[in-house]
Amino acid sequence: MLSDSENARLEKAFNKIARWVHKEKKTAVTPDDLGNKTVQGLADEINDILQRAIQTGIDFEIPAATMQHFKNNVYVFSGCKTYAELRELSDMLIDDEGAIKQFSKFFKDVRSVHDTYNKSYLQSEYQFATQSANMAGKWADFEQYGDRYYLQYRTANDDRVRYSHQLMHNITLPPSDVFWSEFFPPNGWRCRCNAVQVRKSKYEPSDSNEARRLGNEATYTVGAGGKNTSAMFRFNAGKEKIIFPVTHPYYNDKEVVKQVEKGLSNE
Fold first, then answer.
1. If 0-12 CB within 10 Å is exposed, 13-18 middle and 19+ buried, where does residue 198 land?
2. Are the C-beta atoms of residues 22 and 106 closer than 8 Å to each other?
3. What is the band of 167 on the pLDDT scale with cuts at 50, 70, 90?
4. What's the pLDDT tens digit per position in 115-159?
5. How far is residue 46's CA from residue 178's CA, in Å, rounded to a whole number?
């Protein structure tokens, strides 16, 4: 999904930040650090990749205003993701004795941050952005028809489909049903589920309450502290005009979000 040149630019931008953190002895970071040119370099690389994911995913023509909402959402997501990386770099600067690590030791240690955020996570985020944009475009098309047709939830229906998502396969409801506000795909990282229009004369509608129960089950994953880490996927990208959910952990620090949003006015 990510090209060799994109991976090379990401690594170069990350390495620059690592050197900057060590040189400036950044044992603590603040949202203002996002204004630093070196830090912004990584945010720009991530943003470019995820903006490409949007363009790749959209198959239907959508209003320019909606596309701008998508671009803004991805821009803020990229900045907040960069800050999460920056904070981890800062946390790794001090050794067990409370001293600044030698650069060689620090540089070796922070490879795990790059591998996690800019390889593993970013691959999943790229795929999610592509699928989210694709489904948002479909939703804009579905809205034109109101409730003339039902929408039917469909998985990829192969041996890779997670069990909880397979339970939603063939759920059939009108677009106005609240189910689609919460469980319109994608419903998780690397989710390949889809929704299609079907004729009312051919299918019986599902029970809405049961459909929502299954949706809740499909988006329930217990994480640290017993928190449901999958609840953030309960949104409809097309209705809300966003690509990534605003409840993603990257957005937890509202001051960081505000700082990144300031950059939108300079775009």
1. middle
2. yes
3. very high
4. 999 999 999 999 999 999 999 999 999 999 999 999 999 999 999
5. 33
- Mention every residue, 6+ apart, whose C-beta is less than 8 A from residue 11: 114, 118
DSSP state of 198: E
Residue 248, both tokens:
């993603």
What rounded mean pLDDT belongs to the chain?
Answer: 95
pLDDT of residue 203: 97
What count of Cα atoms within 13 Å lies in the side-chain half-sphere of residue 91? 8
Residue 149 DSSP label: S
Helix (H, G, I), strand (E, B), or coil: what is residue 140?
helix
Angstrom distances, CA of residue 185 to CA of 33, 82, 83, 119, 162: 35, 26, 28, 24, 14
Instruction: Dump strand ranges (E) for the chain.
Output: 150-154, 172-173, 194-198
Residue 242 sits at the vertex; the CA angle it makes with 240 and 245, to the nearest 5 degrees, is 95
- The contacts of residue 150 (CB under 8 Å, 6+ apart) are 172, 173, 174, 197, 198, 199, 200, 203, 205
Whole-angstrom distance, CA of residue 138 vs CA of residue 32:
38
Question: For residue 39, what are its two tokens?
Answer: 């830090």
The Cα 264–Cα 267 span in angstroms is 5
